[in-house]
Amino acid sequence: MGKGIKKIGVLTSGGDAPGMNAAIRAVVRACAYYNVQCVGVYRGYQGLIEGDFRTLAAHDVSNIINCGGTILKSARSQEFRTKEGRQKAYEQIKKEKIDAIVLIGGDGTFTGGMVFNDEFNFPCLGIPGTIDNDIFGTNYTIGYDTALNTVVEVIDKIRDTASSHNRLFFVEVMGRDAGFIALNAGVGAGAEEILIPEEDLGLDRLLEALKRTKRSGKSSSIVVVSEGDKIGKNVFELADYVEENLPEYEVRVSVLGHMQRGGSPSCFDRVLATRLGVKAVELLLDGKTNLMVGLVNNKVETTDLDNAVKGHHEINKELLRVSDIMSI
Length: 328
Fold this sequence. Notes:
Layout: E1 7-12, H1 20-33, E2 37-41, H2 44-50, E3 53-55, H3 83-96, E4 100-105, H4 107-120, E5 124-128, H5 144-165, E6 167-173, H6 180-188, E7 193-195, H7 203-215, E8 221-226, H8 235-245, E9 250-255, H9 267-285, E10 291-296, E11 299-304, H10 305-310, H11 317-326
Parallel strand pairs: 1-2, 1-4, 4-5, 5-10, 6-8, 6-9, 7-8
Antiparallel strand pairs: 2-3, 10-11
């Protein structure tokens, strides 16, 4: 080990996700284990540009494994999208004598790292942290499992109300371009229908499915809608459309919003974040760069950052089939 790396920076960027703190903790403690200095970069790429740095020792990350959000804060930096902004960031890194950096975030974070690596040949290593689970090269992203559990818990509560009042509830979950949360939480919570960006159910089929549900004697229904669903209407317009065409239904809408991002991470996310954090540091010390660490078939594997950004994480077709069968 070695390759001349004496100081590693770590930052979180983009939307926060439960388990990011567990990943930060793993990076800091792996650095301590291998006698490498660790520097926390606050507020993502914006903090990199402004030199918002703090040295982190093993004891600085005590009692954070159970906390949601990110102690390093996160920000979306427009300035880092410019060549001048990235030049400033590089100058700050050189001044601080940082030799490599671990980036915790999603595809926007990795795109930034990739461009930075191309321009300055600076070692970057990505850890996938996003509740959407839409990163190629890993079966699970940090935060996804926790978000799923949060959504299922909330839908269970909504179902109590739906059943008490014979109502149809449209529950909108996060996932602008990916239906992973909607599909898995929908199956887990026993939703009658699931609308996701990857599959255009179509309005007619939705109405038919809801009529069938009514005929089967169900007095209440839950439809889980991914925010990026391609059916062509937002969730409120969708609810209005169903009420107009199926007057026997009393329709309500619940938009879960940012509650899905918060909360104490699940055991799965804590363990995943810890494994990926340690591996990220070890890879940098082995002279590897421009990679993302991920979990594939329960093994920690690497993917080129380029592939992680450009590749497509496919929705589970088998689970789609299962959800259709369950909606009978």
